[in-house]
Amino acid sequence: MDLLAGVISVVVCLIGAGLAIAMGAVIPGIERKVQARIQQRIGPPILTPGFWSWLKFAYKWPIKPWATIPRFYESIIALGVVIVIFALLITLPPFWGVLGVASILGIAGLLKLEELIYVLAGSVSQSLLSVPFLRHDLAKGGTKLGFRREYFEQQAAFRALKMAAICSIPLYIALAVPFAVAKSPFIADVISIQNPAFFLGGILPLPSKPIFLTVPGFIATIVYFAGYVMLLNEKPFNIVKPKVDLIEGVFLEYAAKYRTYMYMLIHIFTFVLSSIFVTLFLGIPLDPTKPALLALHLALTLPLPVLKAVLAAFSPVLTFRQLYPASMGFTALAAFSLVLALIL
Amino acid sequence: MGLKATARKNAIHALLVYSGGCNGCDIEVVNAVFSPRYDIEQYRILLTWNPREADVLIVTGAITWAMKEPLQRIYELIPEPKAVLAVGSCAINGCVFRNLVGDIKHNPEVFAPLEKIIPVDIKVPGCPPRPEDIIMAAVKGVPKLMAAP
Amino acid sequence: MTEEQPRESVIVEKELPLGPVHPALLEPFRVRFFVNDEIVEDCEVILSMPHRGIERILEGLPVERALLITERVCGICSNSHAWNSVRVIEKGLNIEVPPRALFIRVIAQELQRIASHLIFIGHAMEVVGHETFAMRAFLLREEYMDMLYFIGGNRVHPAVPVIGGVRPRCEISDSLKRVILETLERSERKLRNYVGRVVADPLVMGRLTGVGYLSKEDAIRLHAVGPTARASGVEWDWRMEMFEYKPFTYDYVILYEGDNKARVIARALEIFECIKIVRQALKDLPEGPVVNRDWSPQRMKFTDSYNEAPRGELYHSYSLDDYGKLRHYKIRTPTITSIHSVEFAAKGDHVTDAVVTIASCDPCLACCNRVEIIDEKSGRRRQFTSMIEVIKKYGWRR
Ligand code: SF4
Questions:
Q1: What CATH architecture does domain C52-367 belong to?
Q2: What is the residue extent of each domain of chain A?
Q3: Which residues of A touch C356 (CB under 8 A)?
Q4: Quick one: how many helices (H) and strands (E) in chain B?
Q5: Ligand 1: does its nearest atom lie under 6 Å from the Cβ of B61?
Q6: Which of A158, A317, C74, C212 has a CB 3.0–4.6 Å from the CB of C357, allowing a cystine?
Q7: CATH label of the domain that carries residue B106
């Protein structure tokens, strides 16, 4: 019996990971299409930015990146993909029995680890595009010589550290709100107070009272969305990789296969955060054993990326001058909702 | 058609390097080709600014003395398979900057044509070429990419 | 300039170089930011990349053929270069230009000014990071490119002026006149709508307001020109002096804020003044021939001419020898003088804001640049016309 349960949970986890990859391949295309329609153009086909780009980069010939520790730089991004998928897996039902992992600590810890990937990758990479590009700087007679010359990636890592320190706080506080409502750190309890029917079985057990529809839950949703955009470094919070000064930030040197991993990291992360939102705030877990519920879950993960695309189409890059107040405002809002959740 | 060729056909990243022409071709490529009226993205060509990501290198302008070396280095950075698009008479034959010189007979500042510096696959003549031509040429570069191992 | 200023002691932590192939700059030039944390303390713009030796290849060309090259100095404001180069010889040899030709030149110039300003606004929005506004500006610009295409037969280099008038192909017929008027009508409404939305957007304006301040004194001291200077309150526009613009009534856009927002809005408002000029010119278009072929190249002494290009003051000058060949062609483009003022204005802002400031003078570097080397001990100067000469003589320091 135990063996059967074990096999089932492994299969469920594999299906979960497969779903994450499949959704990650589609979501960027949908986002791009939404943006293109806002900008009054047709835009690329849905699969182009996601699926076909991944494949194409995988088929490119390998190249050695310009980095101080090339192997480390390459492997860190594969690690990132694993972390992201694992962050999704611990919200799946098979993990609920494992105390201590399937809790807020597990999710928050993995997301924090994810942010560190940026810092680690950025600090070893040395793209051609910034410092070594041109020798004119050091021509004879130059007045401004002898400074430390910074690569784009290092600057981006520096900014990523700042963002990880300040701008991800709203997301973590908002993440705590469902757990505060459930008065328990475990995901199973969060599901059970929203969706008691889920544990009774049935084809489509709908949540009876999702946290999203309560006052603290709604405020927390707004903050979660802001934090979602901040964590994914999308516009307007993309100071880590604004096209106008750092081009692509820490990911400049990934080529061929590793660029596939990099895109997988970003795109799957988009899905995973959205999925965590649906699980925690709407009470609909990602459970591959119930197909109807699964379809509903996947459909409900789409609004967040689409909203993100709309926001990105209508907003400029914000610098730290605007980011600090914005982050503080969202933190205050999140703290307010947390207090409400604990009182009510 | 194998999966490899299909993938290469369906996602093409183009990098623009402007190597010192008059700005005309440059503006035509960026602002007209990527503006909503012509919108090259619908033909599965995406603009990028990172050589590590690019498949197609679009070069405009007569290659000036200062841009020659950066151009070569950027070309080397692009992972194989890659295609090079020379847009405008400047990149193809030097336009007026090479052919209409006064007393000095030979202009040492420009290194056009581009072929002398990096291998060129597709040429788009015109000063500047019309956006329609540029789109057509960029799409023509696809078979070479697809055929590569 | 630098000797009067007291040297401020700033701590420069590191250097952050951008370019020459970079999405924010497009054209090849390199910006070195000297930053402390992320605040720009000093900034250096290196311009020499698109040097094509234009002044040198013009030396000794027959004057009629020079137009081919001068037009290709810049692809955004090609008409102002072509026009200014024919103005020099028309002034020097007293060539009579038919009034209809003058009007058509003004029309082409103003249409191109609008297209250029729309590029600027689109580019500024792209640098700010707002893609939708950028795309929208490029979409609006297409209509003006179409009109230039109808007039001259080429979208970028319409080649409207020739010595003594305009090219006969660029004659504006009645039907073309109607097309242009209708398009202007349609696009002016769209433009008003667009500019209104840009100005009302709180996020974009939050990025632009109060960043990159350039006072009037600094603008004059660093010789900012064109809309960059006018946004700082310098009341000067070369169109005030040009006899071609005398028949038209329109306003000069002078703003006093001197920040990035003012530089964007100054250009946006100027577009509407350009539309006014085009309307008037089309309405009172005089009848008659468009070109006067009654001249011959002969000796001409050194003559100069100024013109208001979209980016500001443009200077062309040359002399002709006995065979009608060009001698001592000199071009000074607006960007070369303006860029130092924004280099100055970029100090004290975040790097991402500083890039916007650099872009806000509308840099268009497809121009000549030259090198001057001053020997500090003897005070001897030597002008070089090419980078190669400098490198050959002095080499690289590595
Ligand atoms: S081909 Fe013509 S339009 Fe293009 S860069 Fe050269 S001169 Fe300019």
A1: Orthogonal Bundle (1.10)
A2: 2-134+147-343
A3: 244
A4: 7, 5
A5: yes
A6: C212
A7: 3.40.50.12280
